[in-house]
Structure formats: structure tokens, C-alpha cells
Amino acid sequence: MAEQPRLWHVTVTVAGDAVEPLVVRNALRRLNEQHPFLHSLKYAGGRAEIQYWEEAESLLDASSLALRIWNEHRESAGLPRWEVVGLEVLERAVYLSRGMEYAVIVDLHDVTPLPF
Q1: Is residue 57 situated within a structural domain?
Q2: Chain-centre distance of CA 84, in angstroms?
Q3: Which of 8, 59, 64, 68 would you call most buried, defined as having the most Cβ atoms within 10 angstroms of its Cβ?
Q4: At the top level of its lineage, which domain of life is listed (predicted)?
């Protein structure tokens, strides 16, 4: 019998050669249209961070999906040719146990990229 998928909070940080911050912001907006479950988008000229919830059976499955998200949407969203430099994947219970300093207000209808 297969395990029930669990919910994981994912943070992916990418970085690379600096580009115009507005280019990054607009690319993140397109990424959000293509991957509508993103709930936090942050950017600067040389890096970006996305956060979202992933449903997967294991940490390995959630991590594998997270490591591919930037490259899989690079062309279609016009994302910079950056590499993943950080990855955090937390099971829902662990994420929630961290307390309010990590709380995120989720508004999936209006996710706006914010500068760091």
C-alpha cells in the first residue's frame, strides 16, 4: 500500500550573475502564473527566493521536485540562468512548530515579488 502524500514547505534560493532587478521581478511574476502555488517571491539583481507548499510522499521526492522547478520554467518564464544555491524542505509539522516568526500569510490570488 502506498504512503499518503505529506505536505512540505519548500524554500528554493537561486543566484548567479546580476541582471536588472525588474527583469527578475517580471520573470517571477510569469513563474507565479505557471506555478500558481507559490506563496512568497523575493528577488534582487543577483538572487531570488521562492516559497511554496509541495505535496509528496517523502522529503526526497519534495526535494527532487524543488531542485528542478527553476530550470523547468527557465525558458517559459524568462528566468535568469541562475543555479540553486539553497534549499530548505520542512515537513508541515516541523514548519509550524517553528513559531510565528516563520509564519507566512498566504494569499494565492495576489503574490507579488518583493525585493530583499
Answers
A1: yes
A2: 11
A3: 8
A4: Bacteria
Q: What is the mean pLDDT of each run of 10 residues along the chain (116 residues)?
A: 82 98 97 92 97 96 97 97 98 85 54 80
The domain of 51 spans 6-98
User: Which residue shows C-alpha cell 543566484?
Assistant: 15
pLDDT at 87: 98
- Residue 16, domain CATH: 3.30.70
- pTM of the entire structure? 0.85
How far, in Å, are 30, 47, 70 from residue 19 at the CA level?
A: 17, 9, 16
What HEC string does 14-36 produce? EECCCCCHHHHHHHHHHHHHHCC
DSSP-assigned beta bridge partners for residue 114: 42
| Residue 42 belongs to a domain | yes
Distances (CA, A) of 66 to 1, 18, 24, 99: 26, 22, 19, 24
What total of structural domains would you count in the chain? 1
